[in-house]
Amino acid sequence: MTENVIETYSLTKKYGDFTAVDELDMSVQEGEIYGFLGPNGAGKTTTILMLMGLSVPTTGTAMVAGYDIIESSREIRTVASILPEYSSLYGELTAFQNLDYIGRLNDIPKEAREDKIGEMLEIVGMSDWRDEKFEAFSRGMKQRVCIASALIKDPKLVFLDEPTLGLDPMGTKEVRELILRLNREKGMTVVLTSHLLNEVQLTCDRVSIINKGSLVVTETLENLHKQMTGVEERNVEFKLSDVPEGLIGNLEALEGVKQVAQEDDRLYVYAGIESDYNVSKTIVDHGAVILLMRPKEYSMEEIFMKYYEEV
Length: 311
Ligand SMILES: Nc1ncnc2c1ncn2[C@@H]1O[C@H](COP(=O)(O)OP(=O)(O)OP(=O)(O)O)[C@@H](O)[C@H]1O
Ligand SMILES: [Mg+2]
Known about the structure:
By secondary structure, the protein is of the alpha/beta class. The chain has two domains: 4-225, Rossmann fold (3-Layer(aba) Sandwich); 230-298, Alpha-Beta Plaits (2-Layer Sandwich). Helices cover 36% and strands 29% of the residues. It has helices at residues 44-51, 73-79, 95-105, 110-123, 139-151, 169-186, 197-203, 221-229, 247-252, 276-285, 300-309, and strands at 4-15, 18-24, 27-29, 33-37, 59-64, 67-68, 80-83, 157-161, 189-193, 206-211, 214-220, 233-240, 257-263, 266-272, 290-295. The chain has a six-stranded mixed beta sheet, sandwiched between helices. A hairpin with a 2-residue loop joins strand 5 (59-64) and strand 6. The model has no long low-confidence stretch (mean pLDDT 91). Adenosine-5'-triphosphate binds at residues 15, 20, 38, 40-46, 85. The site of adenosine-5'-triphosphate (ATP) has 11 residues, from helix 1.
């Protein structure tokens, strides 16, 4: 059985009268890459800070790697790491010096530190820049050193709060590959927030979406997609030779047809699967030729927008 590395119990954070995180119940399994998504201000960063024991919940609690976030926050930080939303390191120090400093903060003995730093710089592809100052690095290089700093204590769980923020497509791809490698080779559990839905699709095993502090959905990406495309009801795209007068009205009148929309020579018919025959027949009866007929594919954007707009 897969163990849960994170379990939250009605986790709530209020700032005065404002509820930033509202009775959140969620769980993350050991070894998965978990996408924690939601629009700006949804409560993602607030949740992550509580799970790292860096912010105290107003009510509710959570267990992270077997530790209670309120009673054992120090222990959590020995097994879990965070790449904060706007992370940075000391500009005047080199990549090596920065990591050495973080290593000391994490009580890694001097003898072990140098090897560990070498390994981390290798993993993030920054070995050649080990002795260059942090301030001289590009945004992507900085981010890679910041990720190395989060990994130096060999965490079993890492929270990456928008790790690709401000990176160009190449930098984004590198970070994505790094996340996948850490997960595969080290079995690291990753909780990731990102607004780049394509990245999420390429990286995450499961996602949850929160909006206004509440969990809207938790699913595998595959199931989210299935829910949108629906087996019983779906949107079918028809490309027609022309759209004869009266056709749309007659389609809408058919049993099982929920909605008909037109875009140029295309009709989108949202209907139950059993209506396919009558829909096609009605089109042909109006004298139009069906040039193409296929269920409409939803983009990740469309899938997420549905949930982002809910609540
Ligand atoms: N220290 C604070 N004091 C008051 N309100 C806060 C504080 N921190 C966060 N909030 C509020 O809590 C809500 C959730 O913020 P949070 O930073 O968790 O959102 P988020 O999901 O991480 O958003 P983003 O995608 O923009 O990073 C926001 O409305 C924010 O203004
Ligand atoms: Mg945030």
